[in-house]
Design goal:
With 150 residues, this protein is α+β, with helices and mostly antiparallel strands. It is built from 2 helices and 9 strands, in the order E-H-E-E-E-E-H-E-E-E-E. It has one domain: 2,3-Dihydroxybiphenyl 1,2-Dioxygenase, domain 1 (Roll), CATH 3.10.180. The strands form 2 sheets. Strands 5, 6, 7, 8 and 9 form a 5-stranded mixed beta sheet that branches. A hairpin with an 8-residue loop joins strand 7 and strand 8. The longest helix is centred in the C-terminal third of the chain and has 13 residues. The protein is globular and about 40 Å long. The two termini are 23 Å apart. The protein binds glutathione. The site of glutathione (GSH) has 5 residues, from loops.
Length: 150
Amino acid sequence: MAAEIDDKMPTNFLIRTPADHTLKEFMFDHVKFGVSDYAASKAFFLKALEPLGVAVVQEGPPGYGVELSPNGEASLCLYQTEEKPAHLHLAFRAENRQQVEAFYRAAMEAGGKDNGAPDLCLEYHTNYYAAFVIGPDGHNIEVVCHEPEA
Ligand SMILES: N[C@@H](CCC(=O)N[C@@H](CS)C(=O)NCC(=O)O)C(=O)O
């Protein structure tokens, strides 16, 4: 395992095992951030995350924004703003590797820029299967599956 660890990793990096990801509880209730083009970001996230079952839960005027979720539990909320937040790295959990691949295709079709095609990231752990796409406002959008191949 040690040979798989990139020497750029912080020395206190906690190596996680897939078993750490079996808890079906969420750390977040919702995450909300401002976007520079509300319509573009809403369209991107809806298309890119459709493979995960994500849809609009509720929506107000752009200044209030939209809430996106697969099930009405943990949600992602976007709203129109002129403020410029630092780039975000958002990672969404997938149940299987097919969802990771479907996300990557959908996100690229939605105008995203490739930042890592679907693949195992052995430097994270043996079953870390993820894809990365740069979305609107330059955010790094990831979908990751921690389960072994079905
Ligand atoms: N293009 C990279 C993207 C990987 C990536 O974004 N990894 C996340 C952690 S899961 C990260 O924050 N990497 C450090 C960075 O981008 O500076 C790849 O395919 O390996």
